[in-house]
Design goal:
Strand content of chain B: under 5%
Structural class of chain A: alpha/beta
CATH topology of the largest domain in chain A: D-Maltodextrin-Binding Protein, domain 2
Number of helices of chain A: 14
Number of strands of chain A: 12
Radius of gyration of chain A: 23 Å
Largest sheet of chain A: 12 strands, mixed
Radius of gyration of chain B: 25 Å
Helix content of chain B: over 70%
Helix content of chain A: 40-55%
Shape of chain A: globular
CATH superfamily of the largest domain in chain B: MetI-like
Low-confidence stretches of chain B: 1-14, 290-294, 557-569
Oligomer: heterodimer
Strand content of chain A: 15-25%
CATH topology of the largest domain in chain B: MetI-like fold
CATH class of the largest domain in chain B: Mainly Alpha
Low-confidence stretches of chain A: 29-34
Shape of chain B: globular
Chain lengths: 346, 569
Amino acid sequence: MISIKKSFVIFLMTLIFSLVLVWFVGEISIPGQAAEEVNAYSIWPENWARPMFEEFEKATGIHVNFIRFSSGEALARVIAEKSNPQVDVLFGGPVETHSAGISEGVFEAYKPPSYDVLESRFKDADGFWVGIADDPLVFMSNAGFLKEKNLNPPSSWNDLLDPAYKDMIQMADARTSGTAVTRIFTILEVFNRDEDKAFEYMKKLRANVQVYTKSGGGGTIPVGLGQAGAGIFFIVDALKTQQEGYDVVVSFPKEGIGTSTEAIALLKGAKNPELGKKLIDWASSPAMQNLFAEYKINFIPAHPDVEIEPSLAAVVKDANIFPIDNVWAGENRKRIVDEWVEKVLP
Amino acid sequence: MPAFLYIFKKKISTNLPKDPAILLSIIVIWFFLLLFILFPLSKIFILTFEKSGHFTLANILEILGKRNHLQAFWNSLLLATLVGLSGTVLGFFFAFTSVRASLSKGWSKFLDSTIILPLISPPFTTAIAMIFSFGRRGLITYNLLGIKTFNVYGLHSVLFAETITFFPIAYLTLKAILSGIDPTVEDMAFSLGSSRGRVFKTITLPLAIPGLANSFLLLFAASLADFATPLILAGSRFPVLPTEAFLQITGLFDIRGGAVLSFILLVPAFSVFVLQRYWVSRKYYVTITGKAGAQTQIKSVTSKTGKFFLTVCILISTLILYFYVLLFYASIVKAFGANYQITLKHYIVVFTEGLKAIKDTLFIATIGMLLGGFYGVIVGYLISKKTFISRPAMEIVSMINYSLPGTIVGIAYLITFNNPPVIITGTAIIIIACYVFRYGATGIRTTMAILQQIDPSIEEASLSLGASAITTFKRITIPLILPGLFSGLGIVFIRSMTAISATIFLISINWTLITVRILEKMTELELGVAAAFSTLVVVIVFIMIIFINLFLRLFRGPGAIDMSNILGG
């Protein structure tokens, strides 16, 4: 009896083992089915990047292999892989990331057909990157929290210093998140690039911060759930939270708030440069940017021929929004982030 | 030929194994140890101590000169000490209850199987559950207790989560020790009129001290290396070294800074490892009485205290179970905290978008398991059964990657294998090599432990009957160490499924891992998907454990996997 049981178990194990082996061998030996493939690091979250890439494949037959990183991580990777690039395109992410990449020499200049019609803030003068969307920062607060503390939605940078927000603000960590870098440069602009005053403000704000999150949108759901009271996010993340049904309020400071271009760039030494260029052509044209509304991606399109979705236009109508000087930001990014880590974070 | 070379040559030749197969194996193993352990580690040393071609301490001083990093260093030591203490106390409490409180078999099985859960889970599981329970709108703090201002981020949370995750290590270590203390020794003291408190203070506790020290060091090391829990729960005011090193590299692209930080982490980690392995673990007391193991009514606790102890243990186990139920629940509702409608959508995401990560992980874990298992057996065999000149060195070197926090190993691989002579970034090989030379070490230790119990005369008999070394190995040694092989295989597989601290640096566009997807989904706040992925990993690991136990039972091997080797992360 026992020996039958034993040999049966052994047989079963061998069977499973060989099946797994066959599957693995198949997995390895069958190269990618799509004839044409392009590799990308996406800074956009998977939820938005995936449908865009699927639409791209529908339109061109080119499959996009991608992996998502926050902007700091993606930049670190492309710099580390400079001598042996693993991807062809860096897709999305605030343009400070791309500016910093230019000084590291990781990009190849390429001007897609849309280049000439784009506003100058949506393109690099040498063509190292082009804009695919515009993404202003906003204040987002939990409606219940505001009511409980009897507050109006914050309408000034100083409102966030109110002790009522103590330990209730979540925002991103500048070491990993482009949102955070844009936020810090915004504050610098608000204080007319007076770094002492700007850092003074950020240190004061620190007292109200519950946690600095790894990614830019990291605080949105906590604010939605009321685990945090408010935060500073890109509009695209804030409106997504609202669309998912969380009771949050979007507001803008009267002193103004920065906006960052979402950019795309071709990597130097890319293994599939022609396919990468096709992806850039497509992403910088109305072909992709017309799809934002359909997929509920609340970016403001960069291409002048694409209309802003009406409800999104209504949100930003009266807001005081100014572009970040990306050249200045790119040059100073490392120094400012280091200073932020040193002075504000602890 | 110069004289010293001659001596050197002579010395080597007298110590060379006579069997060419053994000699060849030693050379091959050394080649791999050099390539995958010493070479990457040397890169960390070079980055730490070199500046424009000269030896310098400037890099270390520069990093430690930053307030944040210096604080991270002290925080890491503080956290590790606290986790070591609280985990050991909790582990001792559980072990004492389990051994001395006359538990029924059912209860002791319940405790055993529940508290093992955190050890075999992907990282973050406790952290996710903590945020669901104790966040600003957490189930326990807000809904149950109505506390509105509890801050879930900080030392207290990390301490709590790590204690819950790692105390089973202390429990397993101490249970073995406590059950080795013959209750008749305590009986003698009782019959001489000692009180229970006095017996505990003067007999039980002193006998357990080496075990307590051992478990403290194991927990200290586990906490020092833990990357996932502080990443989620530490918040911004409590930086620790592994997460700082990670952020330094991925966020600031400061590879040298990351290497220096991991070197700073290396110092306490390796000291603790050496202390644990070569000092404390050899200082066990054995109680020798005339009739060891005699049945005796255990009197060290009254049945009332026993019941009390059991209740406390059950409460803590229930808390752990609750965390897992919560995790599963979060994976099947639309949006935990906001919308509790049951849905399968997170699992659909897991099995569509996440399918590549699942396939990659299974593939890497399976290959890593096979290679790591055989590597463990071969090295373990060489170290315990053969004499050759480099044997002690081989034993130490083979343990290095295992004893170091994953962050260090990951960073070392990242900086080493992206440049000539060996470029393997972006391949599966780099992840597999990382697993094999890190977790294969547990296979080495299991194999050595088993081989130490085998009488060498069995092998000698085979050799003297004319069998070659290979035949002897095949016919005698392999069947004897088969249980060790299976345990080794299982441990490499389980840890390959759950590790993140090293491999987060090694994933690429071609090869990604479930654990990294979990982290990614958590930072994207797709907590439902993260929970679904975690549940999947727990299920896969459980199936694996059942398989291994089946195998072990088939070969009548001694017991199940040594769970104390399955540290998280």
